């Protein structure tokens, strides 16, 4: 490697032009008086002393005060390690840029595959900032802490955020440092291994295999139907079966799944409770977003039971809730509703009264 190329490499390793020239002079000639360093490099005499002191602070040279200042190159072990680490950094950066360049534009494609799981997290971090309704996400504690600020911000602006964290040793102690008291945010601990998965606003899904996988890749999905399939997997395997890390019975309480809402309020409704709700979603006939408020008048699903909460199996086909707004009776369906009046996207229980006694 010629002198000019080596100098450029040192500059890429965070040395200034003067520092690179000075260091190469000392490597080539060994110990030199400061004035001779200036002679054997392109560094002005007025700059050579400051340059040597700077190189010494970085560990590249040692200076010796005799009758005049001398300098010699330091043991290169640390320097070589630094250069190799920088080389790896540049290589990784090049691969990441190539990966991102090759990523499909999800505005034009329904499904795309990326080479690295970390790329999926970066996509999710960006897209969480754009969510309006809901985030369903399953991830490790490290991944949660990486995305925590974006998730907290989403919850604070009214997005319902459901977080399933895979169990690991020391998780309980670690979770003590997390603020899980935010409205619209709920965390559950999942005691089975699983992939990273995020379903955002019912339309985008992000997937990456867990650490046990022998391959690193990610899948980006921009499709309502495929997102529904992932939502159902999330609900059945990563949400329904596990208890909240910090249970709360406070109202109002919001749901993004009509089936989960039915499971929670079914028994109260059949016991004569009055359940006031606000439902936001799509008016099926008008194909427009709509928000209505009313009380639950009826719950229907195959083989309705009145003395217990329905099972997931009983709710796996279809389920309908009727509400009285005071002006009209509306039927409310879940994700993909066709025949109902409203496709619910967010259901908020505002108040529950049982035998005339208000509960909140």
Automatic annotation (TrEMBL):
Keywords assigned by UniProt, alphabetized: Plasmid
Keyword Transmembrane: no
Protein's UniProt keywords contain Electron transport: no
InterPro entries membership: TrmB-like, Tscrpt_reg_TrmB_C, Tscrpt_reg_TrmB_N, WH-like_DNA-bd_sf, WH_DNA-bd_sf
SUPFAM superfamilies the UniProt entry points to: TrmB C-terminal domain-like, Winged helix' DNA-binding domain
Every Transcription regulator TrmB C-terminal domain range: 111-350
A Pfam family matched in the record: TrmB
Domain Transcription regulator TrmB N-terminal: 10-71
Family classification: Belongs to the transcriptional regulator TrmB family.
Entry protein name: TrmB family transcriptional regulator
Upper classification of the organism: Archaea, Methanobacteriati, Methanobacteriota, Stenosarchaea group, Halobacteria
């Amino acid at each position: 490697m010629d002198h000019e190329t080596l100098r450029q490499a040192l500059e890429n390793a965070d040395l200034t032009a003067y520092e690179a020239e000075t260091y190469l002079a000392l490597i080539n000639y060994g110990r030199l008086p400061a004035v001779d360093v200036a002679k054997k490099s392109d560094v002005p005499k007025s700059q050579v002393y400051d340059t040597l002191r700077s190189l010494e602070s970085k560990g590249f040279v040692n200076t010796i005060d005799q009758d005049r200042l001398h300098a010699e190159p330091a043991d290169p072990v640390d320097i070589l390690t630094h250069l190799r680490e920088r080389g790896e950094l540049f290589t990784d950066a090049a691969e990441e840029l190539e990966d991102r360049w090759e990523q499909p534009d999800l505005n034009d494609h329904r499904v795309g595959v990326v080479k690295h799981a970390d790329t999926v997290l970066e996509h999710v971090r960006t897209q969480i900032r754009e969510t309006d309704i809901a985030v369903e996400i399953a991830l490790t504690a490290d991944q949660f802490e990486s995305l925590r600020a974006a998730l907290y911000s989403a919850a604070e602006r009214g997005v319902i955020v459901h977080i399933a964290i895979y169990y690991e040793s020391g998780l309980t102690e670690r979770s003590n440092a997390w603020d899980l008291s935010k409205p619209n945010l709920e965390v559950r601990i999942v005691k089975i291994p699983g992939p990273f998965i995020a379903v955002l606003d019912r339309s985008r899904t992000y997937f990456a295999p867990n650490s046990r996988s022998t391959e690193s890749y990610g899948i980006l999905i921009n499709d309502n139907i495929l997102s529904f399939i992932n939502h159902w997997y999330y609900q059945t395997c990563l949400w329904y079966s596990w208890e909240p890390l910090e249970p709360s019975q406070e109202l109002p309480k919001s749901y993004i799944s009509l089936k989960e809402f039915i499971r929670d309020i079914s028994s109260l409704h059949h016991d004569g409770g009055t359940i006031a709700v606000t439902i936001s979603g799509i008016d099926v006939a008008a194909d427009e977003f709509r928000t209505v408020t009313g009380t639950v008048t009826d719950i229907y699903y195959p083989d309705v039971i009145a003395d217990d909460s329905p099972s997931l199996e009983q709710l796996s086909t279809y389920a309908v809730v009727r509400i009285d707004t005071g002006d009209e009776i509306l039927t409310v369906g879940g994700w993909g509703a066709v025949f109902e009046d409203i496709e619910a996207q967010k259901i908020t229980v505002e108040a529950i009264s049982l035998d005339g006694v208000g509960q909140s």
